[in-house]
What does this fold into?
Amino acid sequence: MAQGGVRIADAAMLNFCGQTMQIDSPDDDTAAMRGALDAHFSPSDGLITADEPVVPQVFISDMDSTMIGQECIDELADFAGLKDRIAAITERAMQGELDFAQALHERVGLLAGLSTSAIDECLATRIKPMPGARTLVQTLRKMGCRTVLVTGGFHQFADPVAEMLGFDHVVGNRLAVSDGKLTGGLLGGIVDSAVKKATLEAEVAALGGGAISLATGDGANDIPMIAAATYGIAYRAKPKARAAANGWVDRGDLTSVLRLLGIPEADWVR
It folds into this structure.
């Protein structure tokens, strides 16, 4: 860090198992600090803040590839024999190469005629929580934090995932269904990057404004939400999302977020 022009006021381990180090600097050069960490500790988990981290009052999280290990629409597409085709569109949208709304409509349209029983089977056999997801959500809730799952995916998946993990509220898209089959359309407006950020802002405003917020996500449509949060943490993220965040988890599971916030393991809900 010194070679990169970042002065160090103090550095100390926060626990006995050597997993978390706190570094204090009088300088405000986030880019230089991240550059030094990435050069010498990769992969790593980190959070750069102006003040000592505290427990947030509201937590907003993406779902696919963040709270769960899958992209729901890609797994659902497998039942229609279209996984490779739809997954390629998903990846380009996540990288920020395609307009999210356009990409979503295109992928959903390809699923027209698929039985809704595929959703139930997909949930039962394909959708799994990320390691540490439930511990993260339940610990924050125990400490008085409101938890919101906001996804560009679908309520048909997000509602049961939220119940499984313990989220207080869900914001998502809804697949249109007729006669037990997907129509290839959506009901209502689209949850995109603007809606994700607006959800964060509305939750903060509901707490009186100025509330400490935490957001986690991994793709391009999470960037405005992550950038607007007090603690925006990119989880195993695409490069653009990681660059927009002031925190990142590349090495550990989702309990790393608790460590970065300084919450002792003794207080975690296992």
User: Anything to note?
Assistant: Residues 193-206 form the longest helix (14 residues). Strands lie at 10-13, 21-24, 45-47, 58-61, 146-154, 169-178, 181-187, 213-217, 231-235, 247-249. Residues 201 and 257 are 21 Å apart (CA to CA). Residues 1-42 form one domain.
